[in-house]
Amino acid sequence: MSVAALDHPVSPTTAVRAVLDTQREVYRRDPFPSHEVRADRVRKLMAVLKDRQHELADAVSDDFGHRSRHETLLIETFVIQSAGKYVLKHLKGWMKPESRSVSVALLPASAKVVPQPLGVIGIVSPWNYPLQLSMVPLLYALAAGNRAMIKPSELTPRTSAKLAEILGAVFPEDLVAVVQGGPEVGQAFCEQPLDHLMYTGSTHVGRLVMQAAAKNLVPVTLELGGKSPVVVHPEFPVEAAAEAVASVKMANAGQTCVAPDYVLVTRDRADALVDAIAAKMAAMYPRLADNPDYTSVINGRHRARLQSYLDDAKAKGARAIEVNPANERFEDAAHKMAPVILRGVTDEMVVMQEEIFGPVLPIVEVGTVEEAIRYVNDRPRPLALYYFDRDQTRIDDLLRRTHSGGVTVNDCALHVIEEHLPFGGVGPSGMGAYHGKEGFDTFSHRKAVLHQPRLNSRWLTLPPFGRRVERLVDWLT
After folding, report:
1. What was the pLDDT predicted at 459?
2. Nearest to 385 by CA among 273, 267, 258, 270
3. How many CB atoms lie within 10 A of CB 2?
4. Active-site choice (71, 223, 243, 419)
5. Does 223 participate in catalysis according to the annotation?
6. How buried is 96 (Cβ within 10 angstroms: 0-12 exposed, 13-18 middle, 19+ buried)?
7. Residue 82: CB partners within 8 Å, gap ≥ 6?
8. CA torsion 309→312→317→320, rounded to 10°?
9. Cis peptide bond upstream of 464, omega within 30
10. Buried b (16+ CB within 10 A) or exposed e, 141-175
């Protein structure tokens, strides 16, 4: 549904609430779908997304100005299908009640934890990966037995419309609904009394989403961003670190929540690492303007934002190294941007205060890895951290002493696509997690159930108390 396109005057709040009420009413008639029903819904979702993957890739590219088709297939389509296969493999086991022990005082009772669908899940997804970051949460919401309402970003309207069309072809709106519209629709969406709200996006908007959800005490999962650092130990091979950093930083033109935001390297290795990163970028993207593998910045506003970061950094003394092998200029409407490595950055620069979300990579030179750890710990806890080192003792030390949502050692971002691992932030980079079993648990209520048999020990605790209760408490304690 498109709230903005309704042909009769109605407020966004009223329109969104109507969808919620319908889904909740139908959910109450079927509050615990069987494994077969849930698996069928997941399979239908996977099938339609795969069958129409090229239409979706075209829509995403149109929204971006240009988005690499292969990046869409690799980072969106593959991730969705991989998640779906993982869910189908484990769903029956996740649904089983979990037996728990019973304390001596309550014997012969039995206890278990029953995962129960929450009801109606709200999913607010961002523009940078408009397929993966809406459909993977939907997979887990459906697997957990819920109904779902999705509010995609208004910055990718063609993709949102295509998703609404595709999902509408296989699911009734009382099971899966796509709510389209601008910020006013998004605000109305987040203010609804949903059973759970998942938001992926910036920390700033995440605070507003949490405030809106709090009005109805709606529990939230917030997948936010932050400045994800890279720490390179001086003994680690520069070429290997450079390849990992460059490839993930350049994917989607740096518009990734877990992209390396800045690199911490010792001063004696900085020149070599910068040269290697620039060389890797140039080898992967020998041209930029007409390169189908190189993605555009999402729109002119974000392109101007990134340029303002560069202008501010250079005005405050940073040195910009543009990686533009063909020496191209970017005057067209596709708003592409050449990658830039920044040296000599300081905390006073905006680029070191805000999440970059683009093809700009600051280099922070330190004296030692110990100094790098202090640098990370002095700043808000990031969504991801990347450490390059071969020494397991040093790796374990860094893992114990730093906080981040997740870590990939000796590569970048791979922990996000490993479905056995939860994905989520900590502190300013988010709360809660999904992927893996944690995805199923996030969209389930783990209900505690204690079963008291007909023959039990309740009579021992009934008044009148007297010495009987005193002896009982003495024995139990």
Report:
1. 74
2. 258
3. 15
4. 223
5. yes
6. exposed
7. 417, 419
8. 40
9. yes
10. bbbbbbbbbbbbbbbbbbbbbbbbebbeeebebbb
Radius of gyration of the chain from Cα atoms? Answer: 25
Of the candidates 389, 376, 390, 341, the residue with the CA atom closest to the CA atom of residue 361: 341
Distance (Å) of CA 150 to CA 137, 175, 191, 328: 10, 11, 14, 39
Amino acid in the structure at residue 50: K
Nearby residues of 95 by Cβ (< 8 Å), 6 or more positions away? 35, 38, 115
Q: Is 257 a catalytic residue?
A: yes
CA 92 to chain centre: 25
Dist CA 312 CA 98 (whole Å): 56
Domain ranges of the chain: 3-224+429-449, 229-423
Residue 422 DSSP code: -
pLDDT attached to residue 1: 60
Beta strands in 397-436 (DSSP E): 406-409, 423-424, 430-431, 433-434
Return the H-helix or E-strand segment holding 315.
helix 300-315
Q: Which residues pair with 448 in a beta bridge?
A: 113
- Please name the fold of domain 229-423: Aldehyde Dehydrogenase; Chain A, domain 2 (3.40.309)
CATH topology of domain 3-224+429-449: Aldehyde Dehydrogenase; Chain A, domain 1 (3.40.605)
Q: Does residue 324 contact residue 343 with C-beta atoms inside 8 Å? A: no
Residue 334 tokens read as: 């596709």
Low-confidence spans in the chain with pLDDT less than 50: 4-8
- Collapsing DSSP to helix, strand or coil, 254 comes out as helix
Give, in order, the Cα–Cα distances in Å from 71 to each of 61, 164, 181, 254, 386.
10, 22, 26, 12, 22
pLDDT tens digits along 85-134: 999 999 999 999 999 999 888 889 999 999 999 999 999 999 999 999 99
pLDDT for the residue 468: 78
Query: Residue 465's pLDDT is what?
Result: 82
Q: Of these residues, 257, 355, 365, 412, which one is catalytic?
A: 257
Q: Amino acid identity, residue 159?
A: T
Q: Does residue 300 contact residue 307 with C-beta atoms inside 8 Å? A: no
What pLDDT score was predicted for residue 2? 53
Task: Return d(Cα 412, Cα 408) in angstroms, integer.
Answer: 6
Distances in whole angstroms, Cα of residue 180 to Cα of each of 13, 134, 183, 450: 13, 13, 10, 44
Rounded to an integer, what distance in angstroms lies between the CA atom of residue 28 and that of residue 79?
Answer: 32
> Using an 8 Å Cβ cutoff, are 166 and 48 in contact?
yes
Q: How far apart are CA 302 and CA 336, in angstroms?
A: 11
Residue found by looking up tokens 């650092």 in the block:
229
Q: Which residue has the tokens 């995805």?
A: 439
pLDDT confidence of residue 454: 87
